[in-house]
Amino acid sequence: MSPRRTDTGGHVDRLKTIRFTFDGVAYTGHGGDTLASALLANGVTLFGRSFKYHRPRGLLSAGVEEPNALVTVLKGEVREPNIPATMVEIHDGLIAVSQNRFPSLTWDIHAVNQLGGKLLSAGFYYKTFMGPVVGPLKGTRFWMFCEHFIRRAAGLGSAGSAKDPARYERMNAFCDVLVVGSGPAGLMAAKTAADQGARVILADLEPRFGGSANWSGETIDDASAADWVRRTVAQLEARDNVRLLPRTTVWGYYDNNTLAALERVSDHKAQPAKGEPRHRYWAIRAGSVVLATGAFERPLVFPGNDRPGVMLAHAAERYANEFGVLPGQRVVVFTNNDSAYRSALALKQAGAAIVAIVDVRPQPSAEMSALAGEAEAELLSGHAVVATEGGKALSGLKVQRFDMVAGALSGDARSVHADCLLMSGGWSPTIHLASQAGAKAEWNEALQAFLPPKRTQKWVGAGAFNGHFMTLEAILDGRNAGLTAVGATVAPMAYPHIESLPCDPRPAPVFEIKAKGKSFVDFQHDVTAEDVRLAHREGFVSVEHLKRYTTLGMATDQGKSSNVPGLAIMAEALGKPIPEVGTTRFRPPFAPVSIGSLAAERFGDLKPERLTPMHDWHVDNGATMYSAGLWYRPMIYGLSGETVEQAYVREAKATRENAGIVDVSTLGKIAVQGPDAAAFLDRVYTNMFSTLAVGKARYGLMLREDGFAFDDGTTWRLGDQDFLMTTTTANAGKVMQHLEYFLDVIWPELKAHVTSVTDEWAGAAIGGPKARQILAACVTGTDVDNATLPFMGIVHGEISGVPVMICRLSFSGEMAFEVYSGAGHGTHVWEALVEAGRPFGLVTYGLEALGTMRIEKGHVTGAEIDGRTTARDLHLDWMLSKKKPFIGSAMMDREGLVASERLELVGLIALDNRPLNGGAHIVEEVDEANPHGSIGHITACCYSPALGKHIALALVKGGKARHGTRAHVSDPLRNRFGPVEIVSNHFYDPEGTRMHG
Amino acid sequence: MLITCPYCGPRDVIEFTYQGDGNRERPDPASQNFEAWNAYVYDRLNPAGDHNEIWQHSGGCRVHLRVVRNTLTHEISNVAFVRGDHSSAARRKAEDKP
């Protein structure tokens, strides 16, 4: 048995031994242990180094509020930093390491920061590093010099860069009543609401339901409180209208009673079950919410209150009663309220010696004196702890007479030998969720605490959350809350019989003992009482400013234990009562949330994907697939041993020499139909469509309302009132919404309807000098000669018995045709085309070759229509009709959009015959040391097999005026500099003789 | 946030796309009144309180809705079809009644 583990007591499974390591040292613990309780049982007192001063720190608490004992958990290559050891359940093989120490936890080089404490006070960084350079050791330059060292010394754990292989899920849930917190109040509320037939979700951030009942040592109806919990949970488990969510932190309370929760599904397991997520994000819509979130105990602020061995009183009680671990053998209790007396007694019963109870109150009640006697502790009333001693563990402390009204110390300090100091500065109800939901918290003078704000949403509070700290109150509250939440009448109930120790919930209004030495308010960010006063002296009087200047309450624990003491010290400095100073509003999340859980199904194997009808054929025939948005498209059909570049060059060459075929099913396709369809298209496109003959297609350009280019594509007139619009793959959804918006909102009088038919059609584009011959070989029911199927003409026919629609248009610049068939026939038609093409040397080609041929032709895509370019910038002004208004026509002639210095589309040829890079800048003069003077950038680049050169499309200032001139690429990130010639974007066959054939 | 689509019932905001300030007046298409176009394209009200907005039920029936939403509380006090309730579905509903 470990040195500090008691022989009996607690809920750990002593028969089960679990092996884990902390900082490389092997330890054992038991089933039910947290990392904190297991290490404590092994006699570990030092858990981490503090943020700024690198002071040794131990456990302050036993729960989610823990500010000191933050660890990094390693799972494979993945490291997750900043997890409170109190929230890590141990499992076999768990590897945890401490943080913010160098080279080791016990011997830390930055601990010298403590000596320079004055230098690192509040505002140190602002004062030292902001503003102009006034001396060698001031200003922004100095910061740039020091940053590396400071960043290394300060801060919390460091994140890893390995890809997280874990799975994350999102779940939507609906319930009548969501109960947050499973202490006596929450359990009672859940049971009551469930008994009324309501659909109930009960969530608790701990692995074990029951909250304080697990360690209070009280009895409820003659059974131990822990047994009462087990019985009640069993009843809830048996009901099918109740969902129990242990290890689930409800972290956000949003409008419409929507709450966000994080379930840690498998962190506590050595291996998650197959398919089991690590975390699950719950979006819960609750009819009403019962907030039974309990309360946090506050530390007292006095010199040395951060030394390992100083912890919250209830936390020690929890370690003793719930985990069977004694945090110390010689214990001193320091309190301003009654609740710590129970903790003293609990530790006494678990086997520790209670040396003294130091109470700031001059005269604790007779009941408390009796409890002190029972604990065999010396009661030092009207005293305070003024110092602690020890290094990596507590060895002793100093006590002095204290007048709590004047806040003054008197008499000689007396030394007390102790290895554990429990402190209690009163309790703060956990009102975070209620505060998130709406209004401001209200200060209660008697309880010295902020109580829940007025209700702004449908929630009911219960138990300690309401400031009702006694178990009897919690159970009564819970029942009432359960009834209120389901809309039932609250009838009186028989009081349960509860045996508990006497406790007056009103603490003495003492937050700080002012004595020499560092007294910590915010343990995690190393903010001392003196920092708060310094902020006040420097004029930061608003609580919001105080928070930002000192960073009080801004660490990962979000001030759960420090907000109220900090506020009280500020109020005292201001000479104002606490409620006048006010408090900050809590914002989500209540506790840190994994980013993975928020991304959930958007990544990994749950991500949706769109496949074209011919997808399997591509994969079976050697295509390397490329993900474009949700779509997968062939990138190349590589032959063995070919590089990507070799493959696309071969594909493009073969297409220009013979013929090539490419899957274009991903293009957006929208059916525009109705008597006003043509009129609608005239308004949507910059050019005319009402004049388009049936059986013909036309290239169209759309602008946005603000006059910038939006999307392009061809639209085919299939009938008088029937058009098929194609859009770019990426903009299909946006164009659809754009059209719907104008039809529904702006021009409801137009009789036209739009339908997305992208997935109804399979499309194959076949182009090249032999494309027509290939079609002629396989198409029946129509001719495909120049007379029947002229450029931009449409015919209907059949391929291998399947009806197809063929339009003669070209993206590659070759004589080309787009063959559309019903999606279900896509592969059949594709195979027939490939077969027919075989004698003609037809190749299949992918996105790379497609892109190469479009760059050679100078066609624009989303890389050029990037939301910042106009039709003129792209040399598409010939498409701007002067005969009619269209979307964007009124705004496109604005001064800035017709200015001569705009970036315009040009072509580039690398004169050094080396590859160019997308995103590289174009400059007139190269300056590698100090890159500047960009006149534009590259949007797309490739090796052009047709030209035998490395070419690119670019947006360059002046555009056409620079044709024939030289410039340079400047790409310092990839260290690519070199001369280019600026040419027309139409590199290849500018007259279009090949496609017009 | 919940928006009650007149067709589909109360739905999570994730199903909707915000389509802009509902107070804008689009000038006559042929108008060259630059001030009016500028106001339409760029000027937005930013009230702390009730705001007229247009939302599309893009993850559902795809209809556009005029929504009055309180920007401070997300409370939605009114939802109506932008086109008015003379759509075919509403007509069908009316005809179904005996």
Structure description:
- The complex is a heterodimer of chains A (997) and B (98).
- Chain A is an alpha+beta fold.
- Among the domains of chain A are: 13-110, Roll (Ubiquitin-like (UB roll)); 168-298 and 426-504 and 577-607, 3-Layer(bba) Sandwich (FAD/NAD(P)-binding domain); 325-424, FAD/NAD(P)-binding domain, CATH 3.50.50; 615-666 and 760-853, 2-Layer Sandwich (Gyrase A, domain 2), CATH 3.30.1360; 668-756, Aminomethyltransferase beta-barrel domains (Alpha-Beta Plaits), CATH 3.30.70.1400.
- Helix content of chain A is 22%, strand content 29%.
- Chain A has 23 helices and 51 strands.
- In chain A, the strands form 13 sheets. In chain A, strands 8, 9, 12, 13, 14, 15 and 28 form a seven-stranded mixed sheet that branches. Chain A has a seven-stranded mixed sheet with strand order 41-42-43-44-40-34-45. A six-stranded antiparallel barrel of chain A has the order 46-49-48-47-50-51.
- In chain A, helix 4 (184-195) packs parallel to helix 5 (225-237) and helix 6 (313-323) runs parallel beside helix 7 (339-350).
- The longest helix of chain A has 15 residues, at 139-153.
- The termini of chain A are far apart.
- The model of chain A has no long low-confidence stretch (mean pLDDT 93).
- Chain B is of the alpha+beta class.
- Chain B has one domain: Folate-binding fold (2-Layer Sandwich), CATH 3.30.2270.10.
- Chain B has helices at residues 34-42, 88-96; strands at residues 2-5, 9-12, 17-21, 50-56, 64-70, 76-81.
- In chain B, the strands form two sheets. In chain B, strands 3-4-5-6 form a four-stranded antiparallel sheet, with no helix packed on it.
- The longest helix of chain B is centred in the middle third of the chain and has 9 residues, at 34-42.
- The interface between A and B is medium-sized, with 22 and 28 residues.
